[in-house]
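Input record, target 12 of the design panel.
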């Protein structure tokens, strides 16, 4: 049983471990840290739901190497991201920038929440109101019906 659990854990958590290969790692730990931070925010264009840091696709490896190459040349983090966006489009960013062209993307959650609130409010207003208390005449009629029912 322990072997099965260990195997499942290795398969579940072991994927990203093999993504960045030892031959890709930069000698300078500061540059390597920057490279990891940048590549964690870049989308693998093959996998599309993983960062290039987590993907073992060949294109992701090429992008990781490109990021490291640009950092070694002396580019800033912003220059590296801008270079990749210019080359591959904004789709390469896992978190797109906020702008006119991405306004709908960023505002959709708020829009859905607002529409849901409006729908819930409208549904509650259409709901029938609970009956009000009986007046004296209705109360007497109810008591008479209950007495007749008990007497039968």
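The sequence produced for target 12 reads:
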């Amino acid at each position: 049983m322990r072997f099965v659990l260990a195997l499942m854990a290795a398969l579940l958590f072991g994927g990203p471990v093999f993504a960045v290969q030892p031959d890709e790692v930069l000698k300078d730990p500061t540059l390597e840290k920057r490279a990891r931070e940048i590549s964690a925010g870049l989308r693998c264009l093959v996998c599309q739901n993983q960062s290039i840091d987590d993907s073992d696709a060949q294109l992701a490896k090429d992008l990781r190497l490109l990021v490291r190459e640009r950092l070694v040349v002396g580019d800033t983090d912003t220059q590296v991201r801008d270079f990749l966006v210019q080359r591959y489009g904004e789709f390469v960013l896992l978190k797109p920038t906020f702008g006119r062209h991405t306004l709908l993307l960023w505002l959709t959650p708020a829009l859905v929440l607002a529409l849901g609130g409006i729908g819930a409010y409208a549904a509650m207003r259409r709901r029938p109101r609970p009956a009000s208390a009986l007046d004296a005449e209705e109360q007497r009629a109810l008591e008479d019906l209950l007495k007749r029912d008990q007497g039968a």
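The two ends are 70 Å apart (CA to CA).
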